[in-house]
Design brief:
Blueprint: H1 4-8, H2 17-32, E1 39-42, E2 48-51, H3 53-69, H4 75-87, E3 101-105, H5 114-124, E4 126-132, H6 136-139, H7 148-162, E5 163-168, H8 171-183, E6 190-192, E7 213-217, H9 226-240, E8 247-251, H10 259-267, H11 269-272, E9 275-278, H12 283-291, E10 296-298, H13 307-314, E11 319-322, H14 325-331, E12 336-338, H15 343-354, H16 359-368, H17 376-391
Parallel strand pairs: 3-4, 4-5, 5-6, 7-8, 8-9, 10-11, 11-12
Antiparallel strand pairs: 1-2
Length: 392
C-alpha cells in the first residue's frame, strides 16, 4: 500500500475524505493479513522507499489521536515524530516477487509522475490498483486552483497507462471515470465500493445551550456553495434580528478561490453574531456538534461522494442537500434535496427546520429509520476481491 498521501498530511490536524479512506484501508489491511502487507511510497525528498510496518503503525495511531482531538491535540507531537522517523529511512529494493503483487494507490497524490510510478512498479514486480474519488478537476475546472485541471489530467493519464484495476466510491464517479478512460483509449476493470461510515457513537449536544443551530461541513471553497448559506443568514438577520435567527456553524478550514466567501465571514456585522467558524475541530467534537444540529446543510455544486450526508444520517441528524447524483446515491429517500441554485427553496427549508415543531424535519426523522448507509465491511469485500483478481 502506498502511504505517500497520508505522510504528506502530517501537519494537518483534521483529515480530508481521502485521508479517511487511506486510514481505513491501512487498518483493514493490517487486520486482514499483515504477513502479506508492505507499506511504501514516494518520499517527500524524492525516490521510492519501503517503510517498516511497525513505524507505519505508530504513525497511523498518532494520526488518529490527532484527528480525534483536532488542533492542539496530544497526538500531534507523536505524529510529527513518527513522520520524521520515516524520513530517515533509505529506499530499499522490492526484491524478487515470490508471489503475485498488487500495488495499492488510494490517493491522486504524485500520479502526475508517470516515470516514477513506472519505476516503482517495475521494482516491486507489481500490478497497480488505484482509487478514483472524483473527476471534479476535469468536469468542473472552475472550482479548482489554476492549473489544477491540467495537473489532474496528467494523473489520469498515468492511471490509464499503468492501472490494472480501479476502485471508485459511487456510481456517479464510475460513470465519469469510464467516460474519461474511454477518451484515453483504455478500458480497465472497475468496481464501485461505496465508502463506509463508522457506526454512530453516543453523542450529546455540543454545549451550545438551547439556541438552535445548523452545521455545514467541508473546506471553505466555492464548490461547497457556502456563499448561498451566508447570504441566506445575512438576510435573515437583517429581517428579524440576530436573536431570532439560529446559528450557522461552519466546520472546515479555509480553502482556495474564496475571496467573496471570506469577505462575508470576516466583514459582515450581521453574520458575526450568528455564524460560528470552526477550523481544526476534532472528530469527537464534530460528531457531537452534528448530533445536536437542527440539520446538516450540504449545498455543494459537485461531489464524488456525499460523505457529509452519510456521516450526518448515521448520527440520526437530518440533512438538507443539493440535488446532485452523489448526494442522492448516499442519502436515498431519507434526506431532503434542493437545487443548489434555488435560493428561495433553501430559505424556506432552513426556516422550516429551525422551528421547534417543524413537520418537515419530523418527516425526515421518520424516514431516517429506514436509511441504511454503507459499511466498511461491504466496501472491503468488493475492494479486496478486485485486488486479489489483479494480483493473480
Amino acid at each position: 500500500m502506498d502511504v505517500s498521501g497520508l505522510l504528506s498530511r502530517w501537519r494537518q490536524a483534521t483529515p480530508t475524505g481521502i485521508d479517511r479512506v487511506e486510514m481505513a484501508y491501512a487498518q483493514a489491511l493490517i487486520r486482514r493479513d499483515p504477513d502479506r502487507l508492505a507499506f511504501g511510497g514516494l518520499r517527500p525528498g524524492g525516490g521510492y522507499a519501503r517503510f517498516p510496518t511497525v513505524v507505519v503503525r505508530d504513525y497511523l495511531e498518532a494520526t488518529q489521536e490527532m484527528w480525534a482531538l483536532g488542533e492542539g491535540g496530544d497526538g500531534a507531537r507523536r505524529g510529527r515524530l513518527a513522520f520524521l522517523a520515516m524520513l530517515d529511512i533509505r529506499p530499499v529494493p522490492g526484491g524478487a516477487a515470490r508471489r503475485p503483487r498488487a500495488y495499492l494507490h488510494l490517493s491522486p497524490r504524485g500520479l502526475e509522475r508517470l516515470r516514477a510510478y513506472e519505476g516503482l512498479l517495475k521494482r516491486e514486480h507489481a500490478r497497480m490498483v488505484t482509487f478514483v474519488h472524483d473527476l471534479i478537476p476535469l468536469e468542473h475546472p472552475e472550482f479548482v486552483r489554476e492549473g489544477g485541471a491540467a495537473r489532474f489530467r496528467r494523473k489520469l493519464e498515468t492511471l490509464a497507462r499503468l492501472a490494472d484495476g480501479v476502485l471508485v466510491n459511487s456510481r456517479a464517479t464510475a460513470a465519469a471515470t469510464r467516460a474519461h478512460l474511454a477518451q484515453l483509449g483504455r478500458e480497465i476493470p472497475l468496481r464501485v465500493a461505496p465508502l463506509g461510515v463508522p457506526p454512530s457513537a453516543a453523542a450529546g449536544r455540543h454545549g451550545r445551550g438551547d439556541r438552535p443551530y445548523f452545521v455545514v461541513l467541508g473546506t471553505i471553497e466555492p464548490r461547497k456553495n457556502h456563499l448561498l448559506l451566508l447570504n441566506i443568514w445575512r438576510r435573515w438577520v437583517e429581517l428579524e434580528g440576530a436573536q431570532a435567527v439560529p446559528d450557522l456553524v461552519v466546520v472546515g478550514r479555509r480553502g482556495w478561490e474564496n475571496e467573496n466567501i471570506l469577505d462575508l465571514l470576516d466583514r459582515s456585522p450581521a453574520l458575526r453574531r450568528v455564524v460560528d467558524e470552526r477550523a481544526g475541530l476534532g472528530d469527537v467534537a464534530t460528531r457531537s456538534l452534528v448530533a445536536g444540529a437542527r440539520a446538516v446543510l450540504c449545498p455543494s455544486f459537485a461531489e464524488g461522494y456525499g460523505l457529509a450526508v452519510a456521516e450526518a444520517l448515521r448520527l440520526g441528524t437530518p440533512v438538507i442537500a443539493s440535488d446532485i447524483a452523489a448526494h442522492r446515491e448516499v442519502g436515498g429517500a431519507a434526506a431532503d434535496y434542493l437545487d443548489p441554485l434555488d435560493g428561495l427553496a433553501w430559505v424556506r427549508a432552513v426556516r422550516d427546520y429551525a422551528e421547534p415543531d417543524s413537520a418537515r424535519r419530523r418527516a425526515q426523522q421518520a424516514r431516517l429509520a429506514d436509511w441504511k448507509g454503507a459499511g466498511w465491511a461491504e466496501h472491503f469485500q468488493i475492494a479486496f476481491q478486485l485486488i486479489e483478481d489483479v494480483a493473480r
